[in-house]
Structure formats: structure tokens, C-alpha cells
Design goal:
Layout: H1 7-29, H2 32-52, H3 58-72, H4 81-92, H5 97-119, H6 125-133, H7 136-143, H8 146-163, H9 167-180, H10 185-197, H11 202-215, H12 223-230, H13 237-248, H14 260-280, H15 287-302, H16 314-317, H17 320-328, H18 336-352, H19 358-365
Helix pairs in contact: 1-2, 1-18, 2-5, 2-6, 3-5, 5-6, 5-8, 6-17, 7-8, 8-9, 10-15, 11-14, 11-15, 12-13, 14-17, 17-18
């Protein structure tokens, strides 16, 4: 088993199991003080793991290089504006190049804790953070693809601001999210469409999932349509070439080049999981969130054949901890049977995805 492959992996798994037990009793206790305390404990423990590692994810080296370039000449910055301001803040506080990666990862975990606190219904913030941090999606966000990771958290804040009718905050959060990664605009589009639809589209959801399951096995060549559109002279040639390369799969990591184990770990199991919980616990999922998930799965399906297509699914897979928390919590009170189902399922989910994810072994086990 992966979790028994070395001491670092087993230690992290052992700590996770202890945290699971603590979270279980904390949620049953249903007290804000204990929930906030456990939220802080989870955050602190994960940060300790961050600063204890000896290795880095693939893209972390790239970001560190750009940070060193930024320190020398900020005019040459190549990313979106929110990421620029993050670099500026790090420079202001004197973060060195050697401290850069762990500092960014620490900031991300702290933001994840704040997001869990903001989005929690009742005393469930510790559950959200536990489920989120011990998932393959957050693993990639924390130790590899920083921009999409920060963008996703602000997109979550946007979604829950819309759910809570906090319109001004929602505008601020989605603006910041797009400033980290332009593709987060799909969250805004999905939210607007979901607002128009209003009612849950259960049949459409089931159809999209059925087509997705077929596409996971057999290429449907849906990307051909977008390849044709990308050749239309609507925007700059450089941008069209960039999009064209992604759609053609020429930039590598095409879904159909993955082994079955890779497909199952990256996409199939997480998508089946979130679809299964949304459908089985249909009444517990807010209509807006349900429809947003449906639209995001459709979006990911349409671009399944592009390079790094599994990262499109991150926009929806990252929402799984929030769905699981909705299942575990009743009307602001924990439901014992559902909580056992959620934590038991997540234990299996983390073994299949988190501890078998390539980035995990790059960062902790190599």
C-alpha cells in the first residue's frame, strides 16, 4: 500500500486519522469554540508539514524562478494582477527566494482556513478544512499550481457570497479570483446561468454524467469544434496559437495518454463521487450549487481532450468537501449517520487519490 511505502507517508496518514477522530467528536459536540480551535489545530499541523518537507512540486520551481526575476525587475512580470500583488506583498515583507515556496504554501493553507470559516454552515468549519486539505486537488494547489489554487479559494468565497446574498463581496471575490487565474471566469459564467435556471436540473445532470462516463472510456472528439473556433480571426494570433496548442493536446498530459490508474485517480473517481453525493443527497444540496457543479462538469467534459484537462475538473472537484459537509450537517446540526458516511468515504477517497498522487511523492516521499 502507498501509505506504508515510507515513514513520511505513514506519519502523515497517521496524523490524518487522528485529526479525523478529533473532527468527528468536534462536529458532534457542535460548539463554536471547539470548532474554531480544531480549525486552528489543522491549519497549524499542515503548516508544520509544509515547512518540514525537503522537496518541491514541479511548478514550484517555475514560480520561484519568476519570483527571483520579480525581485530584480517587477516590470517583466508575466502573470495576472492578483498574483502580481501577492508577489509584491511577499517582497514588502522581505520574503527571500529560498523562503518563497513554503511561504506561499503557508499563505494558501491560511486562506483555506479563512474560506472554511466563511463558507461554514453552523459549526462545520473544521470539517470543511479537514476534507479540503487532505484531497488531491488541494495537494496540487498547495504544492504545484499556485495560481489556480488561490483563484479557486476566492471563487469559493464568491459562490458562498452569492448564496448568502452578499453581492458586493461576491464582486470583490470573483475579481480577485480572475486576477489569479483568468479561467476562473467559468465560475462566474456558471453562477449567472445557475441564477437564470434557478431550479435544480436533475435530468440534465444525469445526462451529462452519463456522457462523461462514456467520454472517460472512448474519445468523443468534442474538442474538434473548439479547434475550429480557435482558428477564427477574432483575437490575437499568439492567443489563438496558445489555445490551439492546448486543444490539440500538444502541450502534453492529454487525458487519453494517461493509464487507467491515472484516469481513475485524476478524474473518474472524484467525478463519480461528487455526482453520487449530489444525486443521492439531492435534497441537501442548494439549487445554485447543484447547477454550478452540473455546468462545471459539462465545461470539463467539452474540453476533456485538451492538454492538462484534469485541471478543468479541479473547479468542480474542489467543491466536494463543501458538498460532503452539506451532507454531514442537518439544519445547522450534525447528523451522526451522515457524518460517519462522509468521514469513512473521505478516508477511502484520500487513500485512492491523495496518497497516490504524483505530487505527494515529489514533495513528501522522495
Amino acid at each position: 500500500m502507498y501509505i506504508l511505502s515510507n515513514q513520511a507517508t505513514f506519519l502523515l496518514f497517521f496524523v490524518q486519522m487522528i485529526l479525523m477522530v478529533i473532527v468527528f467528536f468536534t462536529i458532534l459536540n457542535n460548539k463554536k469554540a471547539s470548532d474554531v480551535s480544531v480549525l486552528g489545530i489543522i491549519t497549524a499541523i499542515y503548516i508544520i508539514f509544509i515547512w518540514s518537507r525537503d522537496n518541491f512540486g514541479t511548478d514550484e520551481f517555475t514560480y520561484r524562478y519568476y519570483y527571483s526575476q520579480f525581485l530584480d525587475n517587477s516590470d517583466s512580470f508575466q502573470f495576472e494582477f492578483s498574483f502580481y500583488y501577492l508577489f509584491s506583498i511577499l517582497r514588502f515583507f522581505g520574503v527571500s527566494v529560498n523562503e518563497f515556496n513554503n511561504t506561499v504554501a503557508t499563505a494558501y493553507v491560511a486562506l483555506a482556513a479563512c474560506t472554511a470559516n466563511y463558507c461554514a454552515k453552523g459549526n462545520s468549519r473544521s470539517l470543511i478544512l479537514y476534507l479540503y486539505l487532505f484531497s488531491s486537488v488541494s495537494l496540487d494547489f498547495i504544492f504545484n499550481i499556485y495560481r489556480q489554487g488561490f483563484s479557486f479559494l476566492f471563487a469559493c468565497l464568491f459562490i458562498y457570497s452569492v448564496l448568502n446574498e452578499r453581492k458586493k463581496l461576491a464582486c470583490v471575490f470573483i475579481f480577485i479570483a480572475i486576477g489569479f487565474h483568468w479561467s476562473s471566469i467559468i465560475i462566474l459564467i456558471a453562477c449567472v446561468i445557475s441564477k437564470i435556471i434557478k431550479r435544480k436540473q436533475k435530468l440534465s445532470f444525469c445526462i451529462i454524467i452519463a456522457i462523461s462516463l462514456l467520454a472517460f472510456v472512448v474519445p468523443l472528439h468534442l474538442a474538434d469544434i473548439f479547434r475550429l473556433l480557435s482558428r477564427m480571426p477574432l483575437v490575437s494570433v499568439d492567443f489563438l496559437n496558445h489555445i490551439g496548442n492546448y486543444l490539440s493536446g500538444e502541450m502534453g498530459n492529454n487525458y487519453y495518454e494517461l493509464s487507467f490508474n491515472g484516469r481513475f485517480t485524476f478524474i473518474i473517481f472524484p467525478v463519480i463521487s461528487i455526482a453520487g453525493f449530489c444525486l443521492y443527497f439531492y435534497s441537501k444540496i442548494d439549487a445554485l450549487l447543484f447547477n454550478i457543479i452540473m455546468i462545471l462538469i459539462l465545461y470539463s467534459l467539452l474540453f476533456l481532450e485538451m492538454s492538462y484537462s484534469f485541471r478543468n475538473y479541479y473547479w468542480v472537484m474542489g467543491l466536494l468537501p463543501f458538498i460532503l459537509t452539506s451532507v454531514a450537517m442537518g439544519e445547522r446540526k450534525p447528523l451522526l449517520n451522515n457524518l460517519i458516511i462522509v468521514l469513512g468515504y473521505h478516508g477511502i477517497y484520500s487513500v485512492i487519490t491523495y496518497y497516490s498522487f504524483p505530487i505527494f511523492y515529489q514533495v513528501f516521499a522522495s
